[in-house]
């Protein structure tokens, strides 16, 4: 049975890609067959196969993840109320990354001011993939109590 881990950030600049790459590397070093997928690219300025996470994975691990769905395509699907079709496409991408592996690491979209649907898409992706969610955050200058509240809010989303 394959395990799927959906890695999501509580904000930008928390090291989401670094955590994903580190998880893939750590699991691989322990002899666990691991795959990686960034189903939806964070940018539409690059070709889909050139998402920074995908490029880092190719360069550091020699793994070739499936090409990401451009964010513009995801945005259009949301606007045209074709989210179901988009989720099918996401599942196909993750299934492709899941071939012959025990664990697949799925990198979520970063929360972004210009793309208000990112949290909704993350929630839908995690649910449709039946994935365990791992939140990535940084405490920064916050108190432990404020950090705990931030994490509770992020987990509720």
CATH superfamily: P-loop containing nucleotide triphosphate hydrolases
Give the strand tally: 4
Q: What is the general shape? A: globular
The arrangement of helices and strands along the chain is: EHEHHHEHEH
Fold blueprint:
Blueprint: E1 3-9, H1 16-29, E2 34-37, H2 52-61, H3 71-79, H4 83-97, E3 103-107, H5 118-128, E4 132-136, H6 144-156
Parallel strand pairs: 1-3, 1-4, 2-3
Could you name the key traits of this structure?
157 residues; alpha/beta; Rossmann fold; 4-stranded parallel β-sheet; globular
Structure, described:
- Helix 1 (16-29) packs parallel to helix 2.
- This protein has helices at 16-29, 52-61, 71-79, 83-97, 118-128, 144-156, and strands at 3-9, 34-37, 103-107, 132-136.
- The chain contains 6 helices and 4 strands.
- The longest helix is centred in the middle third of the chain and has 15 residues, at 83-97.
- With 157 residues, it is of the alpha/beta class.
- It is globular, with a radius of gyration of 15 Å.
- A 4-stranded parallel beta sheet has the order 2-3-1-4, sandwiched between helices.
């Amino acid at each position: 049975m394959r395990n799927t881990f959906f890695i999501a950030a509580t904000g930008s600049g928390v090291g989401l890609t670094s955590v994903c790459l580190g998880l893939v590397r750590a699991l691989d070093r322990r002899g666990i067959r691991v795959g990686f997928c960034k189903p939806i690219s964070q940018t539409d300025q690059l070709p889909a196969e050139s998402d920074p996470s995908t490029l880092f994975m190719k360069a550091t691990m020699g793994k070739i993840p499936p090409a990401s769905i451009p964010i513009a395509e995801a945005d259009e699907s949301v606007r045209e109320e074709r989210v179901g079709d988009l989720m099918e496409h996401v599942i196909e991408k993750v299934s492709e990354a899941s071939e012959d592996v025990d664990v697949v690491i799925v990198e979520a979209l970063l929360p972004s001011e210009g793309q208000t649907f990112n949290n909704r898409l993350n929630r839908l992706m995690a649910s449709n993939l039946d994935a365990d969610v791992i939140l990535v955050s940084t405490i920064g200058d916050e108190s432990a109590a404020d950090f705990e509240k931030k994490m509770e809010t992020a987990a509720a989303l």
